[in-house]
Automatic annotation (TrEMBL):
It comes from Acidiluteibacter ferrifornacis. The keyword Oxidoreductase applies. Its EC number is 1.20.4.1. GO terms for molecular function: arsenate reductase (glutaredoxin) activity. Pfam families: ArsC (PF03960). The keyword Oxidoreductase applies. Keywords: Oxidoreductase. This is Arsenate reductase (Glutaredoxin). Belongs to the ArsC family. InterPro entries: Arsenate_reductase, Arsenate_reductase-like, Thioredoxin-like_sf. It is an enzyme of class 1 (oxidoreductase).
Amino acid sequence: MKIYHNPRCTKSRETLALIKNAGVDVEVVEYLKEVPTREELKLILSKLHIQPSQLLRKGEAVYKEKFKNSNFTEDEWITIMLENPKLIERPIVVKGNKAVLGRPPENVLELL
């Protein structure tokens, strides 16, 4: 199991705690420091069954200042998220061919 984690995020910390409390080994990727590759992000999106635009954190200042009301392609949104990883919704938990967003943290229970 792998979690794309931001230790400053309450939901991310709560999701990680649920995983650890279940006794599951988990690889923690602090995605703001270790930004996923384009291929990795595409794979995550396919496992989540969502489009890149659905993974955006639209409340972030950088989104509001630079990208709000913009009409980008889904591939362009991937580039934007890789260049601005704060825009990637968190946490993302991946296990095998499945992934969930830890919003709410209890979503991770379906992978445990």
